[in-house]
Write a structure and sequence with these properties.
The protein has a single domain, classed as Jelly Rolls (Sandwich), CATH 2.60.120.10. It has no helices and 9 strands. The protein starts with 23 loop residues before the first strand and ends with a strand.
């Protein structure tokens, strides 16, 4: 849900996507010159293999459980978990159960 011309309101981020059976879905929720916010929906066992981002990023788990591999160090995340990653950090994501994750990419000013 978007409200007004100068703000974006999402009362329930998880409702913005449906977790696909045996798949992964992404949707950009917001973007401007400073940030890009993307919601990911993963079915159990779905993954994003090792990759990097050119800018710092924040991962927030909205629902489910994921394993986030941070440069070879795995950490299990549950709803309410929050992780900030530096630019160019190698990372991977594995959904341990059907999950929704919010990714915020922080662009330089």
């Amino acid at each position: 849900m978007t409200a007004g011309t100068s703000s974006s309101v999402f009362l329930d981020v998880a409702s913005e996507v449906e977790i696909p059976e045996e798949g992964t879905l992404t949707r950009v929720l917001y973007r401007d010159d400073q940030i890009r916010v993307v919601v990911f929906a993963f079915d159990e066992g779905q993954e994003l293999t090792d990759h990097t981002a050119a800018v710092p990023a924040i991962v927030q788990v909205i629902s489910g459980r994921i394993r986030l591999d941070l440069d070879g160090d795995p950490v299990e995340l549950e709803p309410g978990s929050w992780v900030r990653m530096e630019a160019n950090l190698t990372h991977a994501v594995l959904a341990l159960e059907p999950s929704v994750m919010l990714l915020t990419l922080l662009r330089s000013a």
